[in-house]
Amino acid sequence: MLTHAQSTSQQHSCAAWLRRARLWSGIVLVVYLTTHLANHALGLVSFTALEAGRGWFLLLWRHPLGTALLYGALASHLVLALWSLYQRQRLRMSLGEAVQLLLGLAIPLFLTTHVVGTRLAHAWFGVTDSYTAVVLGLWVLRPDIGVRQVLVVLLDVHFISSLPVMQGNAYKTWVDSTPVQMVWAGD
């Protein structure tokens, strides 16, 4: 039979593990977003550079391991966010937390068109989702969808990726105990 102290210790251990899992899934998503936007930035050089970068991007993220990592991060991040919401005793939260939660739940809905038109069209129908086709679709045929995509990405980059950092060292305990931090501090 567990004592109250052991039960509380297990709850804290589980909560810490869930925070770490959410952190790592978030890191995978930020890495995906960063590589995706870095690929877009190659378009400032030329369409040739953009398509060449696309080859490397697809090599990483359409590889079975990259795909599993990305989809696993997406699914676990969503489930863990909903779990943390469920675990709250009250829905009272700061404005920053509310914005992060609402945008985090809304962004997948807004990006559905992009995902279906690129990844799923490629996987299910063998469509080559080149940047030429994507630019034509988003900026010539349906510029309203292109503008929506840009707004979603800007909101995602700003609010979803930076709010955990701005919320005051939410993972400070974990970061302070990592080997890198110990080496940096000289421990």
Which labels suit this protein?
2 domains; 187 residues; 9 helices
Write the layout of secondary structure elements.
Elements (H helix, E strand, L loop, with lengths): L3 H38 L5 H15 L2 H24 L7 H16 L1 H14 L5 H11 L1 H24 L5 H5 L2 H7 L2
Q: How does this model look, in words?
A:
There is one protein chain. With 187 residues, the chain is mostly helical. The protein folds into 2 domains: 11-88, no CATH class; 95-169, no CATH class. Helix content is 82%, strand content 0%. The chain is built from 9 helices and no strands. The chain has helices at 4-41, 47-61, 64-87, 95-110, 112-125, 131-141, 143-166, 172-176, 179-185. The radius of gyration is 20 Å and the shape is elongated.
Helix-strand topology string: HHHHHHHHH
- Average pLDDT score: 81
* Low-pLDDT segments: 179-187
Largest sheet at a glance? none
Number of helices: 9
- Computed CA radius of gyration, to the nearest angstrom: 20 Å
Overall structural domain count? 2
- Tally the beta strands: 0
Question: Beta fraction of the residues?
Answer: under 5%
Computed structural class? mainly alpha
Cα distance, first to last residue?
A: 38 Å
Global shape: elongated
Proportion in helices: over 70%
Give a short synopsis of this structure:
The protein is an all-alpha fold. Helices cover 82% and strands 0% of the residues.
